[in-house]
Amino acid sequence: MNICVFCSAAPLDDRYTAPASEFARLLGEGGHTLVWGGSNAGLMGELADGVKAAGGRLVGISVEFLKHKAYEGADELVTTADLAERKALLLSRADAVVVLVGGLGTLDEVTEVLELKKHALHDKPVVVLDTEGFYAGLRTQMERMDAEGFLPRPLAELIGFADTPAQVFERLKA
Ligand SMILES: CC(C)=CCNc1ncnc2c1ncn2[C@@H]1O[C@H](COP(=O)(O)O)[C@@H](O)[C@H]1O
Predict the structure, then answer these.
(1) Residues flanking ligand 1, CB < 6 Å
(2) In the chain, at which end, N or C, are there fewer CB atoms within 10 A of the end residue's CB?
(3) Which range of residues forms the domain containing residue 79?
(4) CATH number, domain at 30?
(5) What is the pLDDT of residues 60-119, one digit of tens each?
């Protein structure tokens, strides 16, 4: 399976990096391909290192203004002209999307994927690894949208939440 992962480009505390490394190991050992932003920065770099060490394939989709931070050692590295093109390519190369802890870049990416799914422009599974309850606030906000009629289809069809890396793969049936 080609699994697109959105996650932080920042160097993070062990309580965030350890579950991400476990996720990377399961992805690689499962014979999957990581499709990601192609950077060596922070958690993105650690994720790629973990997948590679576990024998997984790496497909990086970088962007012109960040290509100086591109990960060396990807099996395939594509550089897009801008962020919009990168987001489109990340999704088109994926069978499923997984969201690890992240900041505004991650939020931008997952929001776009969910908006496209809302409009039935794709139907790929989207699963959040909710490490340390990091996404509790976002989840509460989305549940309120769901409960109060802001979403045209049930939230549970758009996105799933997992507490552990193993649960992510159970949800993806991968
Ligand atoms: C120090 C430096 C120049 C880092 C390079 N920074 C980046 N390199 C590659 N992808 C990025 C970068 N910043 C944001 N992104 C994209 O946005 C997400 C990370 O943004 P954030 O840290 O969550 O907000 C990633 O999924 C990635 O696809």
Answers:
(1) 6-10, 37, 39, 41, 44, 66, 69, 102-106, 109
(2) N
(3) 2-169
(4) 3.40.50.450
(5) 999 999 999 899 999 999 999 999 999 999 999 999 999 999 999 999 999 999 999 999
